[in-house]
Amino acid sequence: MSWRMIAVIALTYTTGCGALSPSDAGKELQRKLNGQLEGDGARHAVLLVSSPKLEMNEVCVAGERAPNEPMTAQTPFLSASIGKLFVATATLALARRGELSLSDPITRWVERDALSGLPIDGGDSSLDGVTIAHLLGHRSGLPDYFVGETRDGAPNILDRIVEHPDETWSRQDLLDYATAHFAPAGSPGGQFLYSDLNYDLVGMALEGVTGRPYTQVVRDEVLEPLGLGSTWYHDVEPAPPGLEPLAHAWVEQTQVVGLASLSADQAGGGLATTTRDLEVFIRAVASGQLVARAEFERFTIDAIIPGIDYGLG
User: Fold this and answer.
1) For the purposes of burial, counting CB atoms within 10 Å of the CB of 25, is it exposed (0-12), middle (13-18) or buried (19 or more)?
2) N- or C-end of the chain: fewer Cβ atoms within 10 A?
């Protein structure tokens, strides 16, 4: 899932009096974060800076998670497209054990009838050329139904979430909507195009391989092994006990947490989490705790813009 989020780049810098202490650096980060919210118009933010080498472990928080309810370091929030990395990790874990191959066509694990009509150059005959690796790396030739432009002027999925808040979405609904309103983006293995549709198909493949919902596969392969007790799929699982309420999230001026239409946020996002759980997860990815880091970096290209690379997840 993709929507506008704040990005903060923080630097620990040297002053005339020497390097900032971790404590002073934390205060400066908090000041910068407060100013970022004031300048950007965002309602809340949380920033974790963790560096054992610098003996720094700071969490800075600003704003309110809901009206008159302050954001805290423990407040869970929608992780949006960071959820793709969890799905990719689970997929690569299955591949490492030989339960699937990245070169498998999606049609090996998903019934062709479920995919028939999806917008891709060459039509249904091209589906056999779409591999798991193509989907993980956004080179399938399928369009982005979430924030992309439709071929007929219909709203994309993100706009539908806002315009029809009581609408619920099954995965088949999402595929049908893509088929009805979007043009192909290319051919399998061709150009990069970031698309939630790719990850919905990966989720379907995980189910075909294991016979379990993709959400359970991610839980079994990632959440449970890492002890991520504050991370869950918000539309299909209850929030873990003892957590603060989920922070509100906005699309422009519409608060979307709790809307039935947010059921459209599936394998391309779908997770709620906290900064501490994300720290544990990212360290596990970086260190190869679950899957060798090199596996994520296969097929990496300058994708989003030059300098921002995308591999498998």
Assistant:
1) buried
2) C
